[in-house]
Write a structure and sequence with these properties.
Uridine Diphospho-n-acetylenolpyruvylglucosamine Reductase, domain 3, Uridine Diphospho-n-acetylenolpyruvylglucosamine Reductase, domain 2, disordered N terminus, binds (2R)-2-hydroxypentanedioic acid, alpha+beta, 5-stranded antiparallel sheet, 19% strand, globular, binds zinc ion, 7-stranded antiparallel sheet, binds flavin-adenine dinucleotide, Alpha-Beta Plaits
Length: 501
């Protein structure tokens, strides 16, 4: 389902930014952050970039605005230069030059990231990967696909489908996000329960290091135990260790049969027990398990004008099956729903394999982020929590922020213990900010959860990294950063906490 086209991502009016007064404050004014000791771009630098790329692939002036603001409007940089390479060699030349001049850069994919990592904080040069969008090879026998990193996820999916394969990753931003952005954030999404995370599916990576050196870590095989598995350093490091230019991904065979159940549930304990029943009864065909609370569903149905097939319940769940025999899968899913209702776990539900109906159900889930954004400013938390405590933070936070927030809601990939906790208010508000942070992260840490389940650390969370990682682990990350990017030109102010904190 294509929810976001490139233009909609930057179309502030469509997104709810009705006037320029809603354009976010500059990051440097909203947050306490100090510019690093980087060179300031001059005309000679621009001329050098124009000599590496064609002139029209060096963007300056007004047109750079959209590349400076993140999708949720939480941060805004002031870069005046956006570069659009087409080849790995061009990326290498750019970085070699930037490193020699100590010019800071931000790699940018589809700019759908939700942690402020994809845009400049100050005047860093944006390296947009949008023209590195060639698919090199799709091998239908092995399922291995080689492509450049700027291929839009939805386009990759459409191409591999022609060979009866599917990309082992799906998310609401698929119409805009790049596969390279997905790998750089180790994106999770809606089918992680089925296909696992990208550390498993990505077989090879080509990346350019800060000094311009090209690291060829590509592989055409699932099995390749030759030394250290360096590719993993680039999966989830959010552009802080290198720019990912090419990928080899294992794409599984596309399912022949897809069925969906959408159910209403009266309380969270029943959500858990229904999940358990689904795992037992649907076993190997289960491909997605999502949970949505009443307020979250209310947002997407109202703001996106979608008609829910069910009446109002405190919780909803989506169960998707993907298999090879429709009659078999449909029967299994229907039996599961009947059993769940007999046991009074589920209050009501529908099962469907009609594509229009499945599309509506997925839209109710995938468009929650978009609908929240239409209503104001959203503080977003993406946490892993033990299932036994998964939802309790939502009412706790609701009580804590009281009337200051318009909505506090929770939804997410319950099948992977990943809660999306959202606090909606009219506009960025320091009072709420100080009530929710560091509270949410302390709460998560006390439960041994993760402060970032899938969106990453980006600009918003470096100071909270220690809630999920030991001092020794952070020290080693820093040593790797120093080894691979000694001048710290790659995506500064992101991922790692500043040394003095
Ligand atoms: P960007 O936002 O452009 O960049 C993200 C980070 O990766 C930045 O730090 C950037 O510097 C770095 N980067 C990008 N490309 C490269 C590259 N080639 N080399 C090195 N670094 C690079 N995320 C999930 O995990 N699961 C979801 O279900 C999910 N659903 C979403 C739904 C919506 C509606 C939206 C708006 C976002 C959603 N996201 C989700 C978040 C986001 O889409 C993902 O993080 C996605 O992987 C980002 O890809 P991108 O191409 O937009 O990267
Ligand atoms: C999703 O699963 C995304 O829809 C976005 O990860 C979550 O907006 C959010 O909080
Ligand atoms: Zn998600």
């Amino acid at each position: 389902m294509s929810l976001l086209s490139r233009s909609s991502v930057f179309n502030f009016a469509k997104r709810g930014f009705a006037s320029s007064s809603k354009i976010p404050d500059l990051t440097k004014d909203r947050y306490p952050v100090k510019r690093g000791n980087y060179a300031i771009i001059n005309d000679q630098d621009v001329a050098k970039f124009e000599s590496i790329l064609e002139k029209h692939r060096v963007i300056t002036g007004e047109e750079t605005q959209g590349y400076n603001i993140d999708w949720i409007g939480s941060v805004r940089g002031s870069s005046n230069v956006v570069l659009k390479p087409k080849t790995t060699e061009e990326v290498s030349e750019i970085l070699k030059y930037c490193n020699s001049r100590k010019i800071a850069v931000v790699p940018q994919g589809g700019n759908t990231g939700l942690v402020g990592g994809s845009v400049p904080v100050f005047d860093e040069v944006v390296i947009s990967m949008s023209l590195m969008n060639q698919i090199e090879r799709i091998d239908e026998y092995s399922g291995i696909v080689r492509c450049q990193s700027g291929v839009v996820l939805e386009a990759l999916e459409a191409n591999v489908r022609e060979k009866n394969l599917c990309v082992p990753l799906d998310l609401g931003a698929k119409g805009s996000c790049h596969i390279g952005g997905n790998v750089s954030t180790n994106a999770g999404g809606l089918r992680l329960i089925r296909y696992g995370n990208l550390h498993g599916s990505v077989l090879g990576v080509e990346a350019v290091l800060a000094n311009g050196q090209i690291m060829n870590l590509m592989s055409n095989f699932k099995k390749d135990n030759t030394g250290f598995h360096l590719k993993h350093l680039f999966i989830g490091s959010e552009g802080s260790l290198g720019i990912v230019t090419k990928l080899a991904i294992h794409c599984p065979t596309a399912p022949q049969a897809v069925n969906l159940a959408f159910v209403g549930v009266e309380n969270y304990q029943n959500v858990l027990d229904t999940f358990l029943l689904a795992k037992k009864e649907l076993g190997e065909i289960l491909s997605s398990v999502e949970m949505i609370d009443e307020l979250s569903l209310g947002c997407s149905t109202t703001m996106c004008n979608i008609q829910s097939p069910l009446q109002t319940y405190p919780f909803y769940m989506i169960f998707e099956t993907s298999g090879s025999n429709n009659a078999h899968d449909e029967e299994k899913l229907t039996n599961f729903l009947n059993n769940a209702m007999e046991k009074s776990l589920v209050a009501d539900g529908v099962v469907t394999n009609e594509s229009a109906k499945m599309k509506t159900i997925w839209e109710m889930r995938e468009r929650i982020a978009e609908s929240l954004l239409k209503m104001g400013y959203c503080f977003k938390y993406d946490i892993s929590l033990p299932l036994s405590h998964f939802y309790e933070i939502v009412p706790v936070l609701r009580e804590r922020v009281g009337d200051l927030a318009k909505i506090v809601c929770g939804y997410g990939h319950v099948g992977d213990s990943n809660l999306h906790l959202n606090v909606l208010c009219d506009s960025f508000n320091k009072e709420i900010y100080s009530l929710v942070e560091p509270f949410v992260f302390e709460y998560t840490s006390k439960l041994n959860g993760s402060v970032s389940a899938e969106h990453g650390i980006g600009f918003h969370k470096p100071k909270y990294l220690h809630f999920s990682k030991s001092k020794e682990a952070i020290d080693m990350m820093r040593q790797l950063k120093t080894l691979m990017d000694p001048n710290e030109i790659l995506n500064p102010y992101k991922v790692l906490p500043p040394l003095n904190k």
